[in-house]
Specification:
Shape of chain B: extended
Radius of gyration of chain A: 20 Å
Number of strands of chain A: 11
Oligomer: heterodimer
Order of helices and strands of chain A: EEEEEHEEEHEEEH
Distance between the termini of chain A: 41 Å
Structural class of chain A: mainly beta
Structural class of chain B: alpha+beta
Largest sheet of chain B: 6 strands, mixed
Helix content of chain B: 40-55%
Bound molecules: adenosine-5'-diphosphate, magnesium ion
Radius of gyration of chain B: 37 Å
Helix content of chain A: 10-25%
Shape of chain A: elongated
Strand content of chain A: 35-45%
Strand content of chain B: 15-25%
Largest interface: A-B, 43 and 56 residues
Strand order of the largest sheet of chain B: 13-16-17-10-18-19
Chain lengths: 177, 728
């Protein structure tokens, strides 16, 4: 399938990056700098293709061209294939780009009966009062049991595994998800 | 907007000179931090946890931007010397709006040399709770909840006459009931048994009992009748108000909700409220009153016995609270699962075609089985707890009843009270249980009603953000359209159109081109005033759209979109939708021009053929022609065609193009077409690229310029060449 080609039809294929040929560097621009297969790219960004399920696998590497468009260089199949220092760099970048604190304990959930929710919770970014509008869409468990939260500012929070949450917090959650 | 929020703790410089200072909270490795970004007239400083970390000269940069990513944002500037971007700081989205405003100010400063030290945009956060309020008049998080109850009562006050009539009737009927036990006492005590029985008294009492029962029935019937009228009126008015409001609110707040959700509010929530207001609300008054009256009577008759009955009540109440909490959660969970289920059904049933064509019926059946199993399991659990409540309550109350019976019997034997009094007393005691049970379940109904009320009032109280100004201009428009520095985004942080300016003269045909997703449909949404621009203004014949009455604009606007929506109804009704008072001949004339007269004639019921969801299915091309007829009938000055022919094959497209060309004559037209060749008759083309106007000109001019348009045309030629090789 990978090299499917008919005459003039150039079909875009999935390009898996050979991590041994990839060299990434952190730049002052906030993006990465990459060298791959003899070419160098100035502004490079990493994207999780499955930000909920695979945090360190299937990472798309793309660069910003002069037209300010993002073009994919290829996909890293698994960060584990990379060397320690390169891998650390990728993880740091991803942690920054997908800065999503995890909720560790819920103190209270208040519903103002108008579709708005106030969640007082401990998160990995400290204790937060999270204000959520439209909680129907912005506070819910997806098909694989991850609770995703988006507050009124657009900050995201997660509870990746509800079973790991203490009983009291779970009880409070129960009414809203 | 305040852009000098706080200064770093260890800041020792002259704080007067600092114009901007905003806190930031994460590092470029995604770790928490505490820092400040500050700027004075010349320099920018970045303070981290260990004091000043970086200093920049503002004049070294020629552009500033804030870039929003999935979980964080960053503030950057572009260097003059090497055009390279420099990262200043990173932050969570909480700080996004302020940094975006700052970037705008600094960007303007380096480009023009003018520095506005204050920002006059609205403060983004509620001063009380800090939550984002985004253009809303009142912070939705701080809005008081008691408001809902008050609003509900206000609404109910519209029906105070029937409401109080019903309540009065019900109280009277209850009053008649309350006399009953007294009659029983008389029968037992005064009629006597055996030889000395007073049969005439017995007969009188019997007649009275029958009469009282009849009166009760009468009152009940009257109350019931008024109540039905009251409740239908209540729900009709409520739905009407909701529907009116839904028609008025803007596309922006409309698209925030799914249509399913809105329909739910109109039907379900309105119904819950109706039930509550006309059923439970009245019963609450009644039951509380009944309980009080019963208690008074019982205490007056015999306070010791009354105490026996009342003592278990607090215990029962406490137990009920405990159980109710669990039940509440259970029902809530069940409710969520039913929502899942209806969402799934909606999905699969509207996608039946896809399901069938992929042969995945079995898989969907399995999935539905799983979902409905969850629903029933949750309901089972909730109901089980609910039915546990009654036996437990009964048990607790029975303890009191036992005590009462025991002591009552001993009082009777000790001659403290008569047997008749005791019978009367037990009668009252048993009458108490009804209201008690009812009041126990009240919190649940109350919660449900309040949730629904909240949802209903959320819509009723929604501010109309596209409201027409009082002195909106009524005018007959000619069709000159002007865009002046128009910027727009569906959300604050994601601008779709940036600084768009152009002019379209009356009668001109404009082709709007650009990559998909560039904002072409968005631009025409603005012309149709489904949304208002964030900045800048759109004028028609020199009048800002916001100052023009909606009637003036829309009566002269004809629209044909890619997907035409046909309402349930006949072809004729669907064409006449744009002009309900059109004569039949006008309709035929329009159909002729739109080239749909012939196929309509061939339909089984001619112009009266049912189309729409369950009616006669028209093909894509036929639908489009009906839409064109609809647009023609209105005789619009401005015509908007958004990919009107995109979903059709080339042959049909050619036919429709002929119909369209007849329609376009003499009208200002904005046409979007995927196939650029269809725009060949355009007077001018406006090319959008990256949210901005890239080029404007005729086809020949733009081809000569070899810019964005040229590349689009070339790309299309090569794909159509490819198609030909593939087909041939
Ligand atoms: N209702 C909406 N809410 C939020 N974003 C939208 C909405 N409609 C369109 N967009 C976004 O706006 C951009 C422009 O869309 P659109 O105007 O439909 O493009 P075009 O018609 O040029 O293909 C797209 O990125 C799209 O995702
Ligand atoms: Mg479009």
């Amino acid at each position: 399938m990978n090299n499917y080609k008919i005459d003039d039809f150039s079909i875009d294929t999935l390009r898996i990056i050979d991590v041994n040929k990839l060299k990434l560097e952190r730049k002052d621009s906030g993006y990465l700098f990459a060298e791959y297969e003899g070419k160098s790219y100035e502004e490079v960004s990493l994207t999780r293709l499955q930000p909920f399920y695979c945090l360190d696998a299937y990472i798309s590497v793309s660069f910003r061209n002069n037209e300010e468009e993002w073009i994919e260089i290829g996909v890293i199949r698994d960060l584990k294939e990379m060397s320690g220092e390169q891998r650390q760099l990728c993880e740091d970048y991803l942690n920054f780009r997908y800065y999503i604190p995890v909720i560790t304990k819920i103190h209270s959930i208040r519903d103002n009966r108008m579709g708005y929710l106030f969640v007082d919770a401990d998160t990995t970014a400290g204790r937060k009062k999270i204000a959520i509008n439209d909680w129907w869409t912005n506070f819910r468990i997806n098909n694989s049991g991850i609770l995703t939260v988006t507050d009124s500012d657009g900050n995201k929070y997660q509870i990746p595994d509800l079973n790991k949450l203490d009983g009291k917090s779970n009880k409070k959650l129960e009414l809203f998800v | 907007m305040n852009l000098k929020i706080s200064l770093p703790k260890d800041y020792s410089g002259n704080s007067e000179e600092i114009i901007f200072s905003l806190p930031f909270d994460i590092t470029e490795k995604g770790k928490l931090t505490k820092g400040h970004f500050m700027a004075d007239r010349n320099k920018m400083y970045v303070y981290g946890e260990k004091g000043r970390e970086k200093t920049f000269e503002i004049k070294d940069f020629y552009s500033f931007e804030v870039f929003r990513q999935s979980g964080s944002s960053m503030f950057r500037g572009r260097r003059r010397d090497n055009s390279k971007w420099e990262l200043f700081c990173c932050f969570s989205q909480t700080h996004y709006i302020r940094f975006a405003e700052l970037a705008k100010i600094l960007d303007f400063y380096v480009k023009t040399g003018e520095l506005s030290e204050t920002s006059d945009t609205q403060e983004p956060n509620c001063p009380k709770c800090g939550a984002k309020i985004e253009g809303m008049a009142e912070c939705p998080f701080c809005a008081k909840r008691s408001g809902t109850v008050k609003k509900l009562l206000n609404r109910m006050m519209r029906y105070k006459v029937p409401f109080f009539a019903v309540t009065a009737l019900a109280i009277m009927s209850y009053g008649a009931n309350i006399i009953m036990p007294m009659m029983y006492r008389q029968v037992v005590d005064d009629v006597g048994i055996g030889e000395g029985a007073d049969l005439s008294l017995f007969a009188r009492i019997a007649v009275m009992i029958v009469a009282l029962s009849a009166i009760t029935c009468l009152f009940d019937f009257a109350a019931w009748k008024i109540n039905i009228r009251l409740s239908t009126r209540f729900i009709r008015d409520l739905r009407k108000d909701l529907f009116d409001k839904i028609q008025l609110i803007s596309m922006k707040s409309f698209s925030r909700r799914t249509s399913g959700e809105i329909i739910r509010r109109l039907s379900e929530d309105a119904r819950v409220l109706q039930n509550f207001m006309t059923g439970n609300g009245r019963q609450m008054i009644l039951n509380v009153a009944a309980l009080m009256v019963l208690a008074i009577i019982m205490f007056v008759t015999n306070w010791r016995l009354a105490l026996m009955v009342v003592i278990p009540l607090p215990v029962a109440g406490w137990a009920a609270q405990k159980i109710m909490k669990r039940i509440g959660a259970g029902y809530q969970r069940w409710w969520r699962r039913t929502c899942d289920s209806s969402k799934y059904l909606n999905d699969v049933i509207s996608g039946t075609k896809v399901v069938k064509s992929y042969g995945s019926e079995e898989r969907e059946i399995e999935r539905y089985k799983g979902i409905s199993y969850k629903v029933s399991k949750n309901l089972e659990r909730a109901e089980c707890t609910w039915y546990l409540l009654y036996p437990i309550m009964r048990y607790i109350l029975a303890v009191g009843e036992m005590l009462m019976l025991y002591f009552g019997a001993s009082y009777v034997m000790g001659m403290t009270i008569t047997l008749g009094e005791f019978v009367q007393f037990t009668g009252y005691a048993s009458m108490m249980y009804g209201p008690v049970y009812w009041l126990i379940q009240l919190p649940r109904t109350l919660t449900q009603a309040m949730v629904s009320a909240g949802k209903v009032f959320e819509i009723l109280d929604e501010p109309i953000d596209l409201s027409e100004s009082e002195n909106a201009l009524k005018c007959d428009i000619e069709g000159n359209i002007t865009f002046e520095n128009v910027s727009f985004g569906y959300t604050a942080y994601n601008p779709v159109l940036k600084n768009i300016s152009f002019e379209i003269k009356q009668g001109e045909m404009i082709g709007l081109v650009g990559h998909s997703g560039v904002g072409k449909s968005t631009l025409i949404n603005l012309v149709m005033r489904l949304y208002d621009p964030t900045y800048g203004s759109i004028k028609i014949d020199g009048t800002d759209l916001r100052e023009m009455s909606s009637e003036s604009l829309h009566s002269r606007l004809g629209v044909v979109l890619q997907e035409t929506f046909l309402f349930n109804g006949t072809v004729m009704e669907n064409i006449a939708y744009s002009k309900p008072d059109a004569t039949f001949e006008e309709i035929i004339a329009a159909a002729k021009i739109a080239d749909c007269h012939d196929f309509i004639t061939r339909l089984p019921d001619g112009y009266n053929t049912y189309v729409g969801e369950k009616g006669y299915s028209l093909s894509g091309g036929e639908r489009q022609r009906v839409a064109i007829a609809r647009a023609i009938l209105r005789n619009p000055k401005i015509l908007i065609l958004d990919e009107a022919t995109a979903s059709l094959d080339t042959q049909t497209e050619k036919q429709i193009q002929t119909a369209l060309n007849r329609l376009i004559k003499g009208r200002t037209t904005i046409a979007i077409a995927h196939r650029l060749s269809t725009l060949s008759s355009a007077d001018r083309l406006i090319v959008l690229d990256k949210g901005k106007v890239a080029e404007i000109g005729t086809h020949t001019e733009l081809m000569g310029r070899k810019g964005v348009y040229y590349r689009l045309v070339m790309a299309q030629r090569s794909t159509s060449a490819m198609k030909e090789t593939a087909e041939g």
